[in-house]
Specification:
The complex is a heterodimer. Chain A is of the alpha+beta class. Helix content of chain A is about 60%, strand content about 10%. Chain B is elongated. The interface between A and B is large, with 91 and 84 residues. Strand 3 of chain A pairs antiparallel with strand 17 of chain B, so a sheet runs across the interface.
């Protein structure tokens, strides 16, 4: 190794971790940025899992659909004039009538002038028979004639126009973001980033469908948050890939190596960020919704939790392999496709080393080297192999 | 260099904590949303016995949404119960204000234009007052009810079409004259989507402003007043209304004319209710009488002029055609407004009620407690992992927190922003994401140190690399936030607003706080030789 050139000042301290240092535990290696995981070689683990989960999500969405809340559907509302009917009593009345009281929206309205108190109870669309029956039940509950309890159809507060506008905006958004990524990074990354984002949103929505959780406007906002986070996270990873791509431009290096090096370098950042993003959500879920009992927080936090986890996961296990697989089709990388570094060699690369000068040679089979050398180089006739050419420094 | 860093650090901290202190001392707190605090519920319904159509009711709902939620952060609930419209507004204390906010008339007025429209933004750009010169002309033409594509075969190339020319064809095909017009309506489309035009505050004492920053005009059809021309920064002085949109039938439609492109065909009602009223006004304008010296008629909806067009025939029969350089959306929007104006909904107030919160104090408390615990956990983790640098994260979060809180408070005073439970949860979540910029930076810093550079160099280079990453990733978020904010309404708009706000805040804090803080620390002796960053820095540089 004495001959490895001046290139390797850095490497003198870092290159031979296995030999020079005592090997650290898993966390130690993570902490000190010494991982050398062959993400590329295991790409089908992640992709396979994702495809399976996606199929499950889509199956559930098609088969079961989503459980939309009153805000999207509108429904029927009973206005009960009463001075003392409580929310719990109102819900209990619904339960008795075979409607799910816990899903109803109950509001107390007080007239500013007369002080008249009205309890409004809203549930999803019901048949006329049910409407009258419940109207009667409320009237009995508060001891007024049935005619005093009014029954009305009510529109959704969300409204079709909101959905339509949001969908149109999303399409514009995707086009712009794809163009931006294609411009700043490259178009393959744009495709992969958007696929990963769709993957994340589909999985989160799929979970809502699968377990029949109620989708409220807050959930929709949570899905949008996921969409934003997923893109953000993927861009951070891709930025590293792009940087390494530039760095190894001059060297013949399989794309899989570039990808692996980038993933390992960015791994700790990804883990830390995910943990930092997930901790507050987990706290909302466990402490807020679980122990303190704020049920509304549960749905919101659950969507976010799933989204944040898949968002971090997909950047490394879905988006990056997709880019690698697309890039490998390029002529530049095609010929190098069959081999990529693993183990100690990968570890050395992760530490910022450039591939050894001899590496390309080592890559080829011995036979090839011999054949090429014999045919082309006069040096082949020499008694000993020449020292490798000095590489020109490149900025 | 050092001086600049210190200056930036001091400035941002003074700014953040100063505004926070000001809001706290001023006793200002963000308004809470309907779900947490309840609010005022205003119920309106069409006046008994009046005619209206469903389209005008829908338009009224759209109008109300624009008025109460221009920025998309107020989260009001607007719903139709049969024919009644219920608007629930969070955190409104003043009942009259709530009422005036949600009352839209839907009444379309026809008003003579007294002085030519003028640009307001740059005061000296009076040149734009050249009315007909601006190419985009609107044409009013009469068409007999039976002729579909009548006279307008006449090009209106520039606004100054002469009336004589018009006269000739009026008799012949019984139709149509071109009338050049004020430079109108190029962006009438803006009314539907560019909802921002009426920026209305729910609980401020300041008068609401229109999109040019002038106090919003309440339409007063009995007086002469200056009103904005929608989609432009122009104002026109208009006289008292001389008719309403009811002169037209509700069969106003946007059509394609082979020569003039998109036009609006507005059939007049017969007799005293329609034609007579219209012709009375048109006649005055045609003759440039004192009441209508410019010869132009403005179509007004709720304090905004939808279109200003010059009249060039004295009498119309059966049909009015408005043409100009309309795009399809322009024409369709104008037709929509005129249709709804032909049968305006006259809403009357049924009741104003206090509405109870759907979630209690408990939920709010749970959100705060669990949120703070969550953020605390994040900070503990950061300090455990990055040691001294973790402390920087903690201080940085208080800076971003102070900025965000001040802005949220300010907006709830001026724009009716109301924090709902999901909004609060969203803010808590955004903290986790903000931490990412620090993580990106610190990981780079560690990489640089490991590769043997001195701490000072590592910090410089580390930030340069990290900043690139942060900017790209944040720009994607900002693009998304802007598109969603611009193109949507309701809860989605609110989400986009906060996403943009927290992302912008992240950029500012990274550059003006984190950078100087770390760079300055990296210059001190103290940072070296200690495990302050979670890795040991040796004197010569490098890490072991």
């Amino acid at each position: 190794m004495t001959d490895v050139e001046t290139d390797a000042i850095v490497d003198d301290t870092d290159v031979q971790p296995t030999a020079a240092r005592t090997r650290r535990g898993v966390f130690g290696r993570l902490y000190h940025g010494e991982t050398a995981i062959d993400f590329y070689g295991r790409r089908w683990w992640g992709l396979g899992l994702s495809i399976a989960l996606l199929l499950l999500s889509i199956g559930s969405l098609v088969g079961q659909g989503l459980n939309l809340s009153l805000d999207f559907k509108g429904g029927v509302v009973w206005s009960v004039p009463s001075a003392d009917l409580t929310e719990e009593q109102a819900r209990a009345v619904l339960d008795e009538q075979g409607l799910e009281g816990s899903n109803a929206k109950v509001q107390v309205l007080t007239n500013r002038d007369s002080g008249l108190r009205t309890v409004e109870v809203q549930v999803g669309e019901q048949t006329d028979a049910v409407r009258q029956q419940v109207q009667q039940a409320f009237a009995d509950e508060v001891d007024v004639p049935a005619a005093d309890v009014s029954t009305n159809s009510v529109s959704s507060t969300w409204g079709k126009s909101i959905t339509e506008k949001a969908l149109r905006a999303l399409v514009v958004f995707l086009v712009l973001v794809a163009a931006f990524i294609a411009w700043r990074l490259e178009w393959r990354m744009a495709g992969a980033a958007i696929s990963a984002m769709l993957h994340d949103v589909l999985l989160s929505v799929g979970i809502y469908s699968l377990f029949g959780f109620e989708v409220t406007p807050a959930t929709v906002v949570a899905f949008l948050t996921i969409l934003g986070f997923s893109l953000y996270d993927t861009i951070v990873v891709f930025d590293k890939v792009q940087e390494n791509q530039e760095r190894y431009k001059a060297v013949r290096m399989p794309y899989a190596d570039i990808m692996n090096v980038s993933m390992n370098q960015v791994l700790m950042r990804s883990l830390n960020t995910s943990l930092a993003a997930i901790l507050p959500v987990l706290s909302l879920l466990v402490l807020g919704a679980g122990i303190l009992g704020a049920v509304t927080l549960r749905e919101f936090a659950l969507a976010l939790l799933v989204g944040l986890i898949t968002g971090s996961y997909s950047s490394i296990f879905v988006a990056s392999p997709l880019v690698a697989m697309a890039k490998e089709r390029e002529p530049k990388f095609k010929s190098l496709r069959s081999s990529h570094a693993t183990g100690a060699e990968l570890e050395r690369l992760v530490h910022g080393g450039t591939p050894l000068g001899r590496r390309e040679h080592r890559r080829m089979t011995q036979g090839e080297v011999a054949a090429v050398s014999a045919a082309l180089s006069p040096e082949a006739a020499l008694t000993h192999t020449p020292r490798p050419r000095k590489k020109k420094r490149r900025v | 260099m050092r001086r600049k860093l210190i200056l930036s650090l001091v400035l941002i901290m003074v700014l953040a904590y100063g505004t926070l202190l000001a809001t706290v001392i001023g006793g200002l707190r963000p308004t809470l949303g309907l779900d947490l605090q309840g609010g005022v519920s205003v119920t309106q319904q069409p006046k008994a016995g009046t005619e209206f159509n469903s389209a005008s009711l829908d338009l009224a709902v759209e109008k109300i949404r624009d008025r109460v939620d221009a920025l998309g952060v107020a989260e009001p609930e607007i719903l139709r119960q049969g024919d009644t419209i219920v608007v629930n507004l969070p955190g409104v204390e003043n009942q009259d204000q709530a009422i005036s906010l949600v009352q839209v008339t839907g009444q379309v007025y026809l008003r003579p234009v007294l002085t030519a429209c003028f640009e307001v933004a740059p005061p000296d750009s009076g040149s734009t007052t050249t009315v007909a010169g601006t190419g985009s002309s609107t044409t009013l033409a009469v068409a007999s009810a039976d002729s579909v594509a009548p006279g307008p075969a006449r090009p209106v190339s520039n606004g100054n079409t002469t009336t004589t020319e018009a006269g000739t064809s009026t008799t012949a095909a019984g139709t149509s004259t071109t009338a050049a017009a004020g430079d109108t309506s190029t962006t009438i489309a803006a009314t539907a989507t560019g909802a921002t035009s009426t920026t209305v505050a729910t609980n401020t004492t300041a008068a609401p402003l229109d999109d040019n920053g002038f106090p919003l005009q309440q339409s007063d059809p009995t007086a002469s007043q200056y009103l904005p021309l929608t989609g432009t920064s122009q104002y026109c002085q208009v006289g008292p209304a001389q008719g309403t949109g009811e002169v037209f039938t509700d069969e106003v439609s946007a059509q394609v004319d082979p020569v003039q492109g998109w036009v609006v065909q507005a059939p007049l009602r017969g007799g005293a209710a329609g034609e007579d009223v219209w012709n009375n006004l048109a006649g005055q304008c045609y003759n440039r009488e004192a009441a209508c010296p410019t010869g132009q008629i403005a179509i007004e909806l709720d304090g905004e002029l939808q279109s200003v067009a010059e009249v060039q025939v004295p009498t119309f029969s059966g049909n009015v055609q408005i043409s100009g350089s309309f795009s399809e959306t322009d024409a369709r929007n104008l037709a929509k407004v005129m249709n709804s104006g032909s049968l305006p909904v006259q809403l009357e107030l049924v009741s104003v009620q206090n509405v109870s919160p759907t979630l209690g104090e408990d939920s709010l408390r749970a959100a705060w407690i669990s949120g703070l615990v969550g953020i605390g956990l994040v900070l503990l983790f950061m300090i455990f992992y990055y040691r001294l640098l973790g402390v920087i994260v903690a201080i940085g979060l208080t800076v971003s927190g102070a900025i965000l809180w001040s802005i949220v408070t300010l907006l709830s005073k001026t724009q009716g922003l109301a924090l709902s439970l999901s909004g609060i949860a969203g803010i808590i979540v955004s903290v986790g994401v903000t931490v990412d910029s620090y993580v990106v930076f610190f990981e780079r810093l560690k990489d640089e140190v490991r590769s043997g550079k001195t701490l000072r160099n590592s910090a410089q280079r580390g930030f340069a690399g990290a900043w690139r990453t942060i900017v790209i990733a944040d720009l994607v978020s900002l693009i998304g936030a802007f598109v969603l904010w611009y193109l949507t309404v309701g809860a989605v708009r609110g989400f986009a607003f906060f996403l943009g706000l927290s992302t912008a805040c992240d950029l500012v804090v990274s550059y003006f706080f984190t950078r100087p803080m770390v760079l300055l620390l990296a210059r001190t002796q103290w940072m070296e030789r200690r495990k302050v960053m979670g890795i040991e820095v040796t004197a010569a540089g490098g890490a072991s």
